[in-house]
Amino acid sequence: MEGDDCSFPPDSSDDHSQRGSVASSATLSRAQDVLIYLCGDSAVHLTVEGLGSVTVQELGRSVREALHIPDSAQDAFAFWLCSPLLELQLKARHQPYKLCRQWQDLLYRFTEASEEDIGQDEPCLQYRRNVFYPKSKELQIDDEGVLRLLYEEARDNILTGRYPCDPEHWTGLGALSLALEEGTGLDGQQFTTTVREKKLTSFLPAHVVMGSGGLLSTLRGKSSRHAGLEQSLLEEYRKISTSAGNSPEPTQLLHQYLSTCHMLPYYGCAFFFGEIDKPVQGILQRAKRKPVNVGICLEGVYVMDVKEKHVLLGLHFNELSWDHSYPEDQGDSHILWLEFDGDEDGTPVNKLLKIYSKQAELMSGFIEFCVELKSASEGGAAAETDSEASQQPAGRDGSNKNGRGGRRGMLQRQSSVVCSRVHSLNTISYVDNGKEIKRLKPKRAASFFTRQASATTYSAVQVTDSLEQG
User: How far apart are CA 348 and CA 269, in angstroms?
Assistant: First the structure.
């Protein structure tokens, strides 16, 4: 990961590797062909000398030259090692070939994948958005090639459901995609023909197009659902054609697409996989876990339901404390702990969410680095800017009944997939000697963890054994 605080932690106890970490073949000193994949179906073909020791920084210069990326946007992208099992953003000093040779070590360390899956997994080297690139700088980019690279990645995340969004977002984004590919001059018949040839899943999220429910309900409702989606898409497409004219500049449509994505708080996140406890429904029901994606960016942490494609919990850094713990006994899990404000029957409490994941240590380090980076780059104005921006959706009258940041206001609209669903989480409430709920002190003076977004605001309270058993 980027930043010294997010380095891959060494672990001498792991000796599962089936590959050497250092190339021994003399051929690596000669010119070798390398493919750098971009989001979408394209790749950059490079011929590299000394592949075994070439760094990300050196590769970056070659890729930027091949893609004609201006110097002003060189920080917008980073190199990633990606596979279905793990995604890691690399530092400038990393040597991709050596990390590829260590890939199985990393999978054993940071995933729950089976030995068979690990043995078959191969990473690819991707050039895509830098997690630490501010969204505000994206809006200042005018280079069409750079904007298209950012657009392709955002579009892929929308269509696969990695960025959950509401109907008004995904229909508008789908219409913009169509306008970018086919122009804004299609009539009704041309629109229908084009959409059916390319399929709705080229413009709308797959889970929206496919629907939910059993096979019979899917077959029965498929025709009417598709007709309704096509009609909604057509209405949004006509709005774009009317407002933008028949020949809008591509950069105008690309800016509009990215600006819409910026409304999603988890845009640009790095994603990690984990599980959380499901609430127990009955006395005889066994405890089960729900798979989640954990998105982390410069703004905060977002826990998303993998199946339902909606946000379970969204927290800005000034709304949480965190830590991670290692397994103490065989069969225990690595855990990322998130602590945030909540209530029990109207009584303010601190709540704990346990995220079980072998990537807990990576997530913890990533949060810490984002907090430090944000603090260093924005200084004291960061908290004020975040507060003003986050409170706007809460209610246009400017009221804030919860007395905290704007995330609380978003809870007023529970139908949105972007809203937190704290009530559906199986959390631990802060208790005093197991008898009574501990009331919050001003500015959360009581906290379990030493790692917090602002050391001057919070003081530390140790985690007790009784709480971890919850």
Answer: 30
pLDDT tens digits, 374-431: 878 766 454 444 444 444 433 333 333 332 332 323 323 346 788 888 877 888 776 5
Q: What is the pLDDT of residues 52-90, one digit of tens each?
A: 889 999 999 999 999 999 999 999 999 999 999 999 999
Spatial CA neighbour of 34 closest among 2, 62, 69? 62
CA dihedral sign, ordered 272, 2, 7, 26: positive
For residue 325, report the phi and psi dihedrals to the nearest 5 degrees: -130, 150
Instruction: Report the alpha-carbon distance of residue 244 to residue 340 in Å, rounded.
Output: 44
What is the three-class DSSP state of 330?
coil
- Span 423-469, pLDDT tens digits: 778 887 765 444 444 433 334 445 656 666 654 343 333 344 433 33
Q: How far is CA 358 from CA 41, 111, 308, 355, in A?
A: 31, 6, 23, 10
Tell me how far apart the alpha carbons of residues 60 and 77 are, in angstroms, rounded to a whole number: 9
Distance CA 34, CA 110 (A): 26
**378: number of Cβ within 10 Å:** 15
Please count the other Cβ atoms lying within 10 Å of the Cβ belonging to residue 367. 25
The C-alpha atoms of residue 132 and residue 140 are separated, in whole angstroms, by 16
**CA atoms of 127 and 109, how far apart (whole Å):** 24
**Taking the alpha carbons of 402, 404, 406, 408 in that order, is the dihedral positive or negative?**
negative
Nearest to 419 by CA among 396, 390, 454: 390
C-alpha to C-alpha distance for 451 and 336, rounded to whole angstroms: 12
- Cβ atoms within 10 Å, residue 180: 19
Q: State how far the Cα of 419 lies from the Cα of 387, in Å rounded to an integer.
A: 17
Residues 6+ apart with CB under 8 A from 390: 316, 405, 406, 407, 409
206 in Cβ contact with 159 (< 8 Å): yes
How far apart (Å, rounded) are the C-alpha atoms in residues 95 and 54? Answer: 6
- Residue 274 pLDDT greater than 60, yes or no: yes
Q: What is the mean pLDDT of the chain?
A: 79
Which residue bears the tokens 């005889």?
284
Structure tokens at 181: 């590919």
Cα separation, 5 vs 28, whole angstroms: 31
Interatomic CA distance for residues 322 and 229, integer angstroms? 41
pLDDT of residue 5 exceeding 70: no
What mean pLDDT is predicted for residues 255-268? 95
Distances (CA, A) of 60 to 54, 116, 153, 197, 316: 10, 33, 18, 38, 32
